[in-house]
């Protein structure tokens, strides 16, 4: 599968370079199969001593698509799947520009020993969703990158930090379990700077929290952020967001913990970016993406196209 994809890139490069009058034979020296391995990410994840890795891993493995809870809600971290650091007080959100990826470009590295070819294809398809629907561009890690994400399956659970962090960070996809299209899209949204939808300052206008149904000790997962920390960019609350909790998140008795105030509405989904997710992401990154477009870097099309431009820029 990957050989075919690399072959496609080689053919496209020959056409592009020939049209530019560049000696295409020099490209034969490029090893498309070779990947640059980044340093160990600074932010690999810090777990409490009481974190039950084995229990969580078993929950993730046994999760089924018919389950009422989202799989990422089972990861045992803050709000289920948000990894925090010693420097993170859970107060840096969407409004803080320092946590955005410059130019809307995210260098990434897939730890291939943790996944088979089919898994890697699922990961790349999730990345492609961002390329097709937003101005965000993921490209392979290169040596000059200081900030990047490493996608791996070293730990239990499906989790990510929120926003960009200095000197590398992990997006963890327990395997088997977390390598699903919607799960990957969800975790990458965290890495891009998004918290969960029901944490919005105005959430009480849209949903009711049924505190009596929440597992003891998990109430903090339903905290709200003030509007100085997070923003919806004027787009509004989104019942359909891939970042919304399920109705049964952290339920102790099988009863709903969140109830929509609007009738005939389902909370969240596990498939893809919603229309409002896409709009919020575009608003959040329009300035960064604008800088990139002014500089003429990182293309606007598919993952193959951005790889071509990236390789050409290095060769030329």
From TrEMBL:
What GO molecular function annotation could you give as one example from this UniProt entry?
metalloendopeptidase activity
Residues reported to bind Zn(2+): 186, 190, 196
| GO terms of biological process kind | proteolysis
The answer to whether UniProt assigns keyword Hydrolase to this entry is yes
Instruction: Report the cofactor remark.
Output: Binds 1 zinc ion per subunit.
Q: Which residues form the Peptidase M12A domain?
A: 92-290
Q: Might you give the EC number(s) for this enzyme? A: 3.4.24.-
- Cite the entry's keywords alphabetically: Hydrolase, Metal-binding, Metalloprotease, Protease, Signal, Zinc
Cofactor(s) the protein needs: Zn(2+)
User: Which Pfam families does the entry mention?
Assistant: Astacin
Q: Which PROSITE patterns match?
A: ASTACIN
Q: Where is the signal peptide?
A: 1-21
Question: Catalytic site residues?
Answer: 187
**Recorded superkingdom:** Eukaryota
Q: Indicate what this protein is called per its UniProt record.
A: Metalloendopeptidase
Gene (name only): LOC410406
